[in-house]
């Protein structure tokens, strides 16, 4: 088994430590020039891994922030490839989770239709600005694919930016 396959398997684990290792390995291989293209292709083929990475954007517990950050960085690279950007955009709730990276003032107790945030204190050097960087980067990469245009229009209509005419 190669490292990328092993890391992809670790993402599905029930152990937070194994999930963290898997997210770290995928992030490192996806940003490393000699391995990036092959890694992103392998991740993009497995829709369950792409869905898991998107799901991890919603993880807001204090101990899960590095997993969330690694997932965001991997998705930012993954979204730059046309076929993978289609897969990301097709995941139900993906746009809302990507936009959740932009929110800096989420409360401790979420409303029924909101994603809750733990608090503003981090053990690591991560700040909301770090997460804020990846939200627009992922959206930019997804928007470069013209096939995603209709998905963006439907999403923005839901948010009330456009009205159907």
UniProtKB/TrEMBL annotation:
SUPFAM superfamilies: ARM repeat. Coiled coil: none annotated. Gene3D superfamilies: Leucine-rich Repeat Variant (1.25.10.10). InterPro entries: ARM-like (IPR011989), ARM-type_fold (IPR016024). This is Armadillo/beta-catenin-like repeat protein. It comes from Medicago truncatula.
